[in-house]
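User: I'll paste a sequence; please echo it back and then give the predicted structure.

Assistant: Echoing your sequence first, then the prediction.
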Amino acid sequence: MKEGYHGGIDFEIFGVPTDEKIMEDVSYLLQVYKHRNLSIYIVNEQNQEIAGLCIAGISEKMPLAFAEIGEICVAPQYRNKGIADFMLNYIKETANPYTEVVKLCVTVGNYAEMLYIKVQAGPRFARMTRR
C-alpha cells in the first residue's frame, strides 16, 4: 500500500513514509479502534495484492461514540474502480447499529478529500495550520 501515498498534497509536503512509519500508524489506529473495529481491506485475488484499505472504528474515548475513519487508501492502479466508495459504504453500514455519525479527518487537497466530496460528506469544521 506504500504506493497509495504517492501524489496529492500529503505527498507534496511529507513525501512517502517509511515502512516502519506506516506500520506504526496502522498499529496505533488499530489500537485506538480495538473497542469496535470497523476496518476493511480489499485484496486482488489474482495476485494477492492489497488494492484498498480503510482503517475505521469507534474508540472508547470518542465523544458521543461516533465512528471515525482514520485512514483510507487505494493503490493507484486500483483507483477509479469504485473500491473507495465500496469501503466507505461498508463502514457506514457496519457503524449504523452503533451510531449514525461517521467522522472523517482529511488533509485539504488530499485524494481522499475529493472522494468525500463525491459522496457528499461535507465539512462541518476545519482546523487550519500553516504549511
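The helical segments are 8-14, 19-32, 83-95, 111-118. The mean pLDDT is 83.
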